[in-house]
Amino acid sequence: MEAESILAAGEKEYSELKHRLWHVRDESAALGADVHFHLVSPVKTNFGCSENVTHAVVVGSDGNLSPCVMKQIPERGENYHYFKGQKHLQLNRSYGNIQQESLNTIWHRNEYQQFIHKILTSNRIR
After folding, report:
1. Tell me: the pLDDT tens digits for 1-25?
2. What is the rounded distance in angstroms from the CA atom of residue 126 to the CA atom of residue 107?
3. Is this prediction's pTM over 0.85?
């Protein structure tokens, strides 16, 4: 995914890139198409998850339930994400499988609730 990423080198480039992407999104909407993007600021130091992991889940085609789409990348080998200029190993994460258990059972599992609590706590601290 690194080769498919667009990262701005500074605040000025970020602002220009953001406005260009908004323009593409608006032009696409006028043609009846939806364009979605997530642009990371090079100057912002407080990053939160762009997904609402406290109220939503991702269910993969195999039935595995994860808190985030980034935790279900169907890729062999190692995947990485970047945070504050540092390369980090991206680990897939599943809290259960809806083909074997109900969504309600998985959602209320202690391990999953601890994950949600950790996200909420870390967002308050930052």
Report:
1. 556 677 788 889 989 989 999 999 9
2. 26
3. no
